[in-house]
Amino acid sequence: MSTGSLLLTNALLTDPAARTQMHGALLIKDGVIADLGPGLTKDKVGSDVEILDCGGEVLAPGLVDMRAVTGEPGAEHRETLATASQAAAAGGVTTVVCTPETHPPIDDPAIVDFVLRRARDTSIVHIHAMAALTKGLAGQEMTEIGLLGEAGALAFTDGAHSVMNARVLRRTLTYARDFDALVVHHTQDADLAGDGVMNEGEFASRLGLPGIPAEAEAMLLERDMRLVAMTGARYHAATVTCRASLDVLRRAKADGLTVTASTSINHVTLNENDIGAFRTFCKVSPPLRHEDDRIALVQAVKDGLVDAIVSDHNPQDVETKRQPFAECADGAIGLETMLSAGLRLVHDGSLDLLTLLRALSTRPAEILRLPGGTLTKGAPADLVVFDPDTPFVLDAAKLKSRCKNSPFDGARLQGQVSRTIVAGRLVYQI
Hints:
The protein is of the alpha/beta class. It folds into two domains: about 80 residues, Urease, subunit C, domain 1, CATH 2.30.40.10; about 300 residues, TIM Barrel (Alpha-Beta Barrel). Strands 1, 2, 3, 4, 5, 15, 16 and 17 form an eight-stranded mixed sheet that branches. A four-stranded parallel sheet has the order 9-12-13-14. A hairpin with a 2-residue loop joins β2 and β3. InterPro entries: Amidohydro_3, DHOase, DHOase/Allantoinase_Hydrolase, DHOase_cat, Metal-dep_hydrolase_composite, Metal_Hydrolase. Keywords: Pyrimidine biosynthesis, Zinc.
């Protein structure tokens, strides 16, 4: 951590927590925000303060990504904590929460400790770990949630694996409630999804590919809501993607359940048509849905029904992606492109900038009970500076992630990160 002082001047201070924007400056001391506002100038701070001119760009809280696969330990050829952190910094993400889909899975306190120590040694952003809900991610026997929490696990999930046994999930939710632990669940009925590889519908039929119905998601989410009502646990739906799920979520929140939800950046900016001529980089889980579902998701983010947007970063190497669509692995990288892709929604008028940033930083921080997501005195100096209007064409080869399976490869994007600051230290700069 930097113990020096830094004054960021000539910035558009954008605080999604307070829903305010103003031109001014921000002072960082000892890794936290010491002061900010339009009246703050270099003449009002000490001579030992370093000055950084933001050139009128947006200065906002760093993004908090609730869902990313990092690969380490066991799959370092896909991604390491170091390379994931470099990709995150380049995308304005200052906090990454990694899933337990490693080898071995993060289902033991010793593995939680390893990941956190490794992150402290190699990462340039904050990295937290979610631990497994069930041993081996097998969905049969719950893990020691209490011990894993003591070791530093931030939340509990089986990643892209759904717990199909309702009795196991009920017991897990009950146990998690007693520790006030957050359960993050992937809602896709494995039996109903079967061998499907994309959204079920006319487009899947035209491509000759087996589909996954939206009901596979909505039905499992409905079951989970009933279990949450029984247990009173804190529950987060990992990736909602369809209108039917939004109806379930709306009823659950209306009933006062302690339920939150996120969707992925892929599902609010892409649809099933982006698969085109079998583009494997667009094969994700849950699958990309119909355009009507995408529009409904964006509206749900705007209304606050869907609380957060995640990158769902899942690096896959050439051997697993350069295959026929039906046989390739699910997953797309997203840490470095989450903000730029999300700004598409701002430029087309679907969302305003404050609402987008609230879903990318403020609400994830609140759900995970992490500091950050706001520009207030005393808050951590985890910040991103970006120009929302800078146009560029994405060249996946230049991305910092170890794998290059971006669904936005070759896409025209608008909005580029120029600086990322973590705990008062500049970790990325163009």
